[in-house]
Design a protein that fits this description.
single chain, about 280 residues, alpha/beta, Cobalt-precorrin-4 Transmethylase, domain 1, Methyltransferase, Cobalt-precorrin-4 Transmethylase, Domain 2, 3 domains, 5-stranded parallel β-sheet, 5-stranded mixed β-sheet, 11 helices, 10 strands, binds S-adenosylmethionine
Length: about 280
């Protein structure tokens, strides 16, 4: 008989958010594969549960660890995979272990549970019907702006994670790329006693965090999707191409000739817009 890989979400702030099923699974598996064995040991202690055998399974050793864990499951042992907080694999280690288990024919059972992204989305007050989770954006301004630029006309609500000391920079990039009027919600220290929801436009929320020095707490950032219609998105897209070419020194006449065939807009309109950017 093969064992099973259980994915067990752990609390993101409130120890009692570990589900009864999570407690049951952690109490009976042969081994817990944990991002940090000290963190899971502390949680079990805090909940008054007996300590359990654990092996560390983090970003740097996951590939090798996966093979050993799969061998144990093929030999009949059950394994629970946990990260330091929340749902494993969601901006956390575990993906390679899940793939190795699937490839080996080991059953994977996922327990639903705490996840900052979902908790932040649901309480944000921004449309939850479609959402895009992007995890942590790149730290450097250029790649970070490019990542947002690629989502400028994304109608779905966007959910991000960010470190407190980088949130002002992130919000400034949001203002620059998506506009200062975009609605943003920052969910801070979810499920903890000092849980806080900071809601407003990107300008307002950035201003609010700029006033804090240093910013503290764990933050989930939720950004409203693009609200314009398809025609507006197309017009803005064309505008950014014109601006890019004009700023690169391409003449208005060439911009007009190149773009008029690609975009269904009057030649004169493209020329005038290009001229406007050149004269800035
Ligand atoms: N796998 C985890 C989950 O399911 O929530 C996320 C792990 S990721 C390494 C950690 C990031 O999640 C933090 O930097 C923060 O952006 C977000 N986060 C974790 N706990 C949070 C909380 N209590 N409140 C708000 N955001 C939180």
């Amino acid at each position: 008989m093969r064992g099973t890989l259980f994915i067990v979400p752990t609390p993101i702030g409130q120890p009692s958010d570990l589900s009864p099923r999570g407690v049951e699974v952690l109490s009976r598996v042969a081994v817990i594969a944990a991002e940090d064995t000290r963190v899971i040991a502390a949680l079990l202690r805090e909940l008054g549960l007996p300590s359990r055998p654990a092996v560390s399974t983090h970003d740097h050793n996951e590939a090798e660890r996966a093979a050993g864990l799969v061998a144990r499951m093929l030999a009949g042992e059950d394994v629970a995979l946990v990260s330091d907080a929340g749902t494993p694999l969601v901006s956390d280690p575990g993906y390679r272990v899940v793939v190795a288990a699937i490839d080996a024919g080991v059953p994977v059972v996922v327990l639903p549970g705490p996840c900052a992204a979902i908790t932040g989305l649901v309480g944000s007050g921004l449309p939850p019907d479609r959402f895009l989770f992007l995890g942590f954006l790149p730290r450097d301004e250029g790649p970070r702006a490019a990542a947002l630029e690629a989502r400028r006309f994304e109608p779905a609500t966007v959910v991000l994670y960010e470190a407190p000391h980088r949130v002002v920079e992130l919000l400034d990039t949001v203002r620059r790329v998506l506009g200062g009027g975009r609605r943003v919600v920052v969910a801070r220290s979810l499920t903890k006693v000092w849980e806080e929801w900071i809601r407003g436009t990107a300008d307002e929320v950035a201003e609010r965090f700029r006033a804090e020095d240093p910013v503290r707490g764990e933050l989930t950032v939720v950004i409203e999707g693009f609200r314009g219609d398809a025609g507006e998105a197309e017009a803005e897209r064309l505008d950014s191409v014109i601006r890019g070419l004009a700023e690169a020194g391409v003449s208005p006449g060439v911009i007009r000739d190149v773009l008029a065939d690609v975009y269904d807009r009057p030649r004169r309109e493209i020329y005038q817009r290009a001229l406007g950017y050149r004269n800035r």
